[in-house]
Amino acid sequence: MTRTARPRRFLMCRPTHFEVSYAINPWMDPAKPVDTDLAVLQWERLHELYAELGHRVDLIDPLPGLPDMVYAANGATVVDGKVLGARFRNAERAAEGPAYLEWFREHGFTTHDPVHVNEGEGDLLLTGGHLLAGRGFRSVSAGHAEAQEFLGRPVIGLDLVDPRFYHLDTALSVLDTDEVMYYPGAFSPGSRAVLRRLFPDAVLVEEADAEAFGLNVMSDGLNVVLPEAATGVAARLRERGFRPIGMDLSELFKGGGSVKCCTLEIREAA
Ligand code: ARG
Question: Domains along the chain?
Fold first, then answer.
C-alpha cells in the first residue's frame, strides 16, 4: 500500500521549566532526578524533525511553575479551526488551560472556554469519522458532550481502565484517516468491542510496547514518530507501509509522556 504524508501544523512548548515535582500519574516519581537540559535537547530534536518532515511548528512560551506545560497535546483540541480549551482534573495543571486558550485567541482562532473536564488531545483523538474520547482517569463524559456540541463531530466515549494508560493518547493512536492502533488491555470490555467494530483492521499493540509509550506517536500518514524503545510497534508499522522514526525522549517519559504528548495539532478550517 502506498502511503502519503500530509503536512501538518503543530503547537509545541519548550520544556524550559520541566521537572517532576508532583505525581499525578503512575510514571511520575518526584524522588527520581530529572535532567532539564537533556529534556530540552531531546525536545529540540523532535522539534527539528518535524521541520525536516515539512510540518509547521508554532511555539507557546513556557510558564514557570507549570512543569507539565511541555505536554502541549493536553492544551486544547483544534478541529476545523475551532479551539476547544482544556480544563484539567488536577489543580497542579489548572493554569495551563487558560494559557493555551490565550495563545489561540491571540492568533485569531474561535475558542470555547470549557465548563467540564477535558484534557485536550490527551483524551480527544480525531479520526475521519469520529472524535474518539477517553474517560476514566482525566476527561469526563460531560466534557465529551461539550466537545461534540462545540466541534460538531460525533463523539465515541471509550473507558480507560489501566492507570498506566491514563490518557487515551497513551493507549491508542490515529495513524491515518480511519486507521488506528491500540493496546486492548487499556480499555474496558465494552470499549474493546466498540473499537473492534469501528476498526476491524486495527494494529493491536503488545503490553511491552504500550509501556514504552509506543502508542504516543505522531503520524502524518506516512512518517510515524515514536519513542525509540517501542521496537515492536516500529516493526508492525513498517509491515503496514509506514515509515517509523524512533526518538529518545527519556527525560519527558519521567513525566508520563512522549512524542504525541508534546505535540498539539492545529487543524485549520478547510
Ligand atoms: N504529567 C502529565 C500528566 O500527568 C503528563 C501528560 C502527558 N500528556 C499526554 N498527552 N498524555 O498530566
Answer: 9-265 (3.75.10.10)
